[in-house]
């Protein structure tokens, strides 16, 4: 027959055939084409809802062949790591937050198709349609949820990005926690020193003084290792009425307060700042920046809702110190990328062209300067 080009219809046929092959194995009912509705798409998966009469609706996430314009080969270890991490995160979250993540989750890595099957968590509300106080209330609930996630002790060993060894997931770094903490503080000082000694224009003395003393103080305040999420963008949150769902996480083992601050950093700064990059343009985060900011402020009050008075003030200040460090880190990464002679397509998709990266670097530095004043 040779290699005929597949049409969209053929592809759907192949998809349905593969799904039914799997569903038969899982002892689910046979799915008819009309039960499958395409509901969304991220950078990596095309997502379909499967409506069922006798049970909760499911979602099928089919891995795209291409992401960021590049062909994605099937790498079994890599895919298993990704999907096992999601599975572990979902069950970790549900231990302390009932029904926040899909309760059903399975993945399939086959020769012709890679996909996950999970509980359908609802159709989310668009952020733009939220009122100020709704946004703040969702933020507060999220803060409480993340606080419980961070405080639920994980049985996973190690630190850093997760690795699948064929049996279990573990962090990829096995240094002791004190060494990891000091190493991280050293790395921040290296980033600081690089920016201070660069040709960039910003109030170097002010930033240097502020961050150096912040780090000196931080060294004595070691944080707890928790299972954290590196992908907290609004597309991975489903807000419906009073319920919040978290989907599509990118978990790792890292410090708890640092990642609480990462959420705040994303919603206050990163999402609006990246809204001009090709990858994010369609989400129009810039337009939503005041709503994102409400969510971030709500998050802080929810995350520390177990403390009051002076303790609340101290904790919030520590979180905002972590926010400053994320700004510094972001500025450093932008600076480093601009030092390279060539930008990869994935980089320009995610960060924009040289001009945009330069503009965002300056924005980071301005914001950092502002936060190094008080
Ligand atoms: N379990 C689910 N329940 C409801 N909607 C979902 C679910 N999983 C994915 N979606 C929808 O599909 C979109 C893309 O899915 P996602 O898993 O984030 O893809 P990607 O891995 O490419 O980022 C989500 O933003 C959401 O709207
Ligand atoms: Mg996603």
Tell me about this structure.
There is one protein chain. It contains ten helices and 13 strands. It is α+β, with helices and mostly antiparallel strands and 374 residues long. The strands form four sheets. It has a five-stranded antiparallel β-sheet with strand order 1-2-3-7-6, covered by helices on one side. Strand 2 and strand 3 form a beta hairpin. The longest helix is centred in the C-terminal third of the chain and has 31 residues, at 309-339. The relative contact order is 0.11. The chain binds adenosine-5'-diphosphate and magnesium ion. Adenosine-5'-diphosphate (ADP) binds at residues 39-45, 47, 59, 61, 102, 118-121, 235-236, 238, 247-248. Residues 39-45, 47, 59, 61, 102, 118-121, 235-236, 238, 247-248 line the site of adenosine-5'-diphosphate.
CATH class of the largest domain: Alpha Beta
Strand content: 15-25%
- Order of strands across the main sheet: 1-2-3-7-6
Number of strands: 13
Instruction: Compute the CA-based radius of gyration.
Output: 22 Å
CATH topology of the largest domain: Aminoglycoside 3'-phosphotransferase, Chain: A, domain 2
Present as ligands are:
adenosine-5'-diphosphate, magnesium ion
Kindly report the oligomeric state of this protein. single chain
Structure annotation, total helices: 10
Please mark out the parts with pLDDT under 50 across 5 or more consecutive residues, or reply none: 1-10
Label the CATH architecture of the largest domain: Alpha-Beta Complex
Q: N- to C-terminal separation?
A: 72 Å
Mean pLDDT over the residues: 92
Query: How is the main sheet built?
Result: 5 strands, antiparallel
Q: Residue share in helices?
A: 40-55%
Indicate the structural class.
alpha+beta
Which overall shape is indicated by the principal axes computed on the Cα atoms?
globular
Number of domains: 2
Succession of helices and strands: HEEEEEHEEHEEHHEEEEHHHHH
